Amino acid sequence: xxxxxxxxxxxxxxxxxxxxxxxxxxxxxxxxxxxxxxxxxxxxxxxxxxxxxxxxxxxxxxxxxxxxxxxxxxxxxxxxxxxxxxxxxxxxxxxxxxxxxxxxxxxxxxxxxxxxxxxxxxxxxxxxxxxxxxxxxxxxxxxxxxxxxxxxx
Length: 153
Hints:
By secondary structure, this protein is mainly beta. Helices cover 7% and strands 42% of the residues.
C-alpha cells in the first residue's frame, strides 16, 4: 500500500524512482493508494507505473500458460492519482498482462493515460477518470489487442 507522506501528497517520480512490477518474477501484485489520497507526480518521461507479465497466448483458455494462472493473473491498481509534469509522462503501461484491473484511479496531464502494450487480455478499467491527456486516454500500442477483451465501464 502506498501511504501519503505526512503533510504532503507529492511523490516525485523520475527515471530513477519509478514503480515497475514484473509479475513473472514477483508473482501476484496489487498497488493500492489509501482511499485515493496517494498522488504520484511523474516528473520525467515514461510511465509512472509499469506492470509486466508474460502472457503470450490468445483469449482462448487453452493458450494461457500455467505460470500465467499460477503467478501473473489479475494485477490490480486502485485508489491512486497520477499527475504528469513532464510532456512525455505517461500514467501506466501494461505489458502482456492477464486480467489487469484499474479501478478508482485518476490520471491527468499525461501524454497517455494508460498504454496497453503487447498482448494484454481481459483488461478492465472501472470507476476511473483519465483527464486532460496530451495524446490519448487509453493507447493500444499492439495490433494484437482485440478490443472485445477490453472492458471500460
